[in-house]
Amino acid sequence: MAPDPQSSSGLAADVRVLLRDTRVRLGLTVGPSVIWLALLLLAPLTFVVTVSFLQVNDAYQVVWQHASLANYQALFAGDGPFWTTSFFRSLVLSYKIAATTTIVCLALAFPMAYLLATHSGRVFKIVIFLVLLPFFTMYLVRAYSWYLMFGPHGVINATLLNLGITDSPLALFGYGQGAVVVGLVHAYFPYMLLSLYASLDGVDFTLVEAARDLGAGKIGALKDVVIPLTLPGIISGALFVFVPSLGAFVTPRFLAQGKIQMIGQLIEERINTLYAIDYGSAASMFIVLTIVVLFLLAFRYVSIEDLGGI
Amino acid sequence: MAERTRGQYALYAVAVLTLVFLWAPLLVMIFLSFATNSSTVFPFEGFTLSNYAQTLADTGLLTAVFHSVEIATIAAAIATVLGVLGAFGLARIDFRLKEFYRTFGILPMVVPGVVLGMALLIYFRTIIGVTTGFWTVVATHSLYGLPFVLLPVTARLYSFDRSLEEAARDLGSGTLATFAEVTLPIIGPSVAAGFMFAWIRSFEDFIRVYFVKGTFDVLTTAMYSMIKYGSAPEMNAISSLLVFAIAVLLAVAMVGGDVTGYVAGSEDGE
Amino acid sequence: MPLENHSQTDRRRFLKATGAVGAAGLAGLAGCTGGGSNGSGTPTINILTWEEYADLKDEIESNLDVNVQFTKSTSSSKMFSSWQAGQDTQYDIAVPNNNYVPKMMDAGLVDTVPKDVISNYGDVYDTFQGFASNQFTQDGSLYGVPIRFGWYGYSYNSDTVPDHEQSYEALFDPQYTGADLSGKLIMYDDHFKAMSAAALYLGYSDAFEGAKITLSKDQISKVKQTMIDQKDILQGYIAADPTYIKSFKQGNFALGQSGRNEIVELWTEGVDSATMATPKEGSLAWFESAVVSKKSDHKDMAWKVINQFIAPKLGAKLAKAGYSPSCNPKTQQNLTDHENEMYGSIDPSRLQNMIPFKAVENEDAWITAWEDVKSA
């Protein structure tokens, strides 16, 4: 630094004194982001919770009176018992699709994570490039690419027909729940892979060998050594696949031809056609609560730093 | 390593098939982007560049791309400033509610887009009463990008040997000089990685923008209407161009720095 | 980005209170409410409407001393909900379907039509003048100007579907046409259009008689059940008109709910096998109606722009762009015989036998039933 004039070094000294105060330092470091989080996350989520107990009038304004459970009752009210309502069905379907997606991701990611963790150099770089490129490609582009592949006359069926493997389009490769799971696996697979890789990377594979030498057997080695070591990776990977799959909107929109309805679609339609923010708020509470529960469960096994890996 | 067993070959086979699964739809799409018949492989009618010409002449689409770049850059810059400052607080200062802050700090990337988008829409439109548009999208994305900066920079600061800073100070460096000469070069790559992630998240986000964008379009919302309204030729071409662009950027980033380390969150990968 | 002019002292106090970064963000947020049409000289008219209208930009700007700015919208409900949410300050004109005009009137969003400015209004088909006075006239004041029209029924691929007595039954009974159409049928992915077709199929045409469509609770649940049963034979729900065209050409379905304009577009692309059916239960007729925001700063100019939409020459161009006839028959002078046949000289007396689109009573019940269908 150039030699300072008198006043400036006085100022520097003042600043230094100020910075010694923890509150000032906190204000300068976490302060701005706390304001941001309070204004753009805490406040909106608080209003969503509040609105879920209120009603909206015909002018689309919130009526700040008469808090009630009416919106929640409406979600489960219909002609029949609550499990026949569209909300309940959509919720269950969303859990089902998100769980299937998570399991498929886990099954596919383990071999590749193992491969990455036990290799270095060229193979590693190439494989990681091939995995990361789709990962960084827009979510929408990937959903669209599957939209081309599926369908009665999509690329898969057209190819099978032309090769004479089948003589009419196969329903398996048509739009529907299966296509949605495929699209979601493709979208969120890298989260699982990278979480698993991060935890496998630290594993000393000679331990695995040793366990097997000691007669643990393959399954035993997997159960007693590999899984406990990679549990944080499995849990954080599962969370980062399950949670966004639960709220999926684009993928089911394009890959099911309107024939299924996940909870994200239900909320979107109510908001964008009717601006039914009371209904939407109550419905989204079920996603929010699910996340809170899942995270509380996850924290029993992994620390928050491990979760933040991605 | 021991000789390869049958089990290992099975693992390789699954890994290779998974790579095929990841790539097949993208390769088909790129193929179709050059095909005259742009919606399916059969009947194949030859190759053309007209899909690209048509796409690059679509001024509406190019404006949307420009909006996306503008928003991603402003939002990622805000997220980076807030995130780097916050990371210093997390790593260097002990305070009550630290865990609370940390949890809230990662929430923006955890809350599903439909919920965050709807919550912010209600907040902007009904609670505050601003008209949704460019700046509501920037605000939303600056929030969404925050964790993507906060996490890698905090991790870097934790693993950083503070004695280096002390040594510099003992050698007579001022606070600012120490920061510029010691701290910044060490955290620099993680800041850059954070900025990049925040930028990409903003650029590729659809659902949050869809709620808070009002009536103007960014690239993803323009693409969404293309799919919904079925303009396959342009959609194939613009999507393929994005894959090419990301391939180049990623290759450069991987040669230049440890992308994997930041993505997987393992700092010892260096 | 235009920032509102906060006074300097206000801003300083604000900065003190919330910290520089937060304030920068809020100022930015507040800033986006301003915009567009300020300044003197040539006014700018902002229009929220369907894509094809933008083709008229150059002509309108050369005919009137005005800048027009078109923003594409893809549904009437979005036009309505965005105005409702405050964008009525940002736009001067919107052109929703007729059934949305009463909703906008009820919400106090739209202004009355100065008939003297709309010099072309007198030329509009009597049918539409009648619909307009019936559906969106209050205390003698008119609130919207009919621009284009068309109708929804269903259509089919005559290569694979035999001729049949045209009825909505074709959408609900896969054997009805004589060919097996199981898995080759599509419906609109829109609660209003899809449920209306089901209601007509079930014979509830009385519900379409009044000022609004009124289905009883029982009728709604019958419609719902019919549509749930229908799901197994459907290929899917189609998101929008252009998807129909693409999907038809790919051969993804054989018969589906559709509007006449898609079929005309297919004809112009040389797909002759597309056949528009006129179901005996009645087609659903729609017309778009231009409205002006109560909050517009340039109402007079906005109505002049709307007058251009139905001018003989520009109306013809609009008909061509969207394959939908204009509500002003004088546009026929500017179309060829062939064009007239497709989207020009459509006799609106045909519309007398059709069922006009109307606002729906108890829309919440419709939506709930629709969600039940989708999640079944």
From TrEMBL, chain A:
Location of this chain's protein in the cell: Cell membrane
Membrane topology: Multi-pass membrane protein
Residues spanning the membrane: 26-54, 93-116, 123-141, 147-165, 172-191, 234-255, 276-299
Domain ABC transmembrane type-1: 91-298
Any single biological process term in GO: transmembrane transport
InterPro entries: MetI-like, MetI-like_sf
Keywords: Cell membrane, Membrane, Transmembrane, Transmembrane helix, Transport
Stretch forming the signal peptide: none
GO CC annotations, alphabetized: plasma membrane
Keyword Protein biosynthesis carried by entry: no
Family assignment from sequence similarity: Belongs to the binding-protein-dependent transport system permease family. CysTW subfamily.
Protein name as catalogued: Spermidine Putrescine ABC transporter permease component PotB
Naturally occurring in which organism (per UniProt): Halarchaeum acidiphilum MH1-52-1
Automatic annotation (TrEMBL), chain B:
Pfam families, per the entry: BPD_transp_1 (PF00528)
Keyword terms of this UniProt record: Cell membrane, Membrane, Transmembrane, Transmembrane helix, Transport
GO cellular component, one term: plasma membrane
Domain ABC transmembrane type-1: 65-256
Membrane topology according to the record: Multi-pass membrane protein
Superkingdom classification of source: Archaea
Cellular localisation: Cell membrane
InterPro entries with a match to the protein in the record: Bact_Polyamine_Transport, MetI-like, MetI-like_sf
Gene Ontology annotations of biological process type: transmembrane transport
Listed transmembrane segments: 9-35, 71-91, 103-128, 134-155, 237-256
SUPFAM superfamilies: MetI-like
Family, as annotated: Belongs to the binding-protein-dependent transport system permease family. CysTW subfamily.
Protein name as annotated: Spermidine Putrescine ABC transporter permease component potC
Automatic annotation (TrEMBL), chain C:
InterPro entries from the UniProt entry: SBP, Sperm_putr-bd, TAT_signal, TAT_signal_bac_arc
GO molecular function: polyamine binding
Keyword annotations of the record: Periplasm, Signal, Transport
Location(s), subcellular: Periplasm
GO cellular component term of the entry, any: periplasmic space
Major site of localization recorded for this protein: periplasm
UniProt keyword Signal present: yes
Pfam families reported in the protein's UniProt record: SBP_bac_8
One biological process term in Gene Ontology: polyamine transport
Protein name in UniProt: ABC transporter, periplasmic spermidine putrescine-binding protein PotD
Organism: Halarchaeum acidiphilum MH1-52-1
Phylogenetic classification of the source organism: Archaea, Methanobacteriati, Methanobacteriota, Stenosarchaea group, Halobacteria
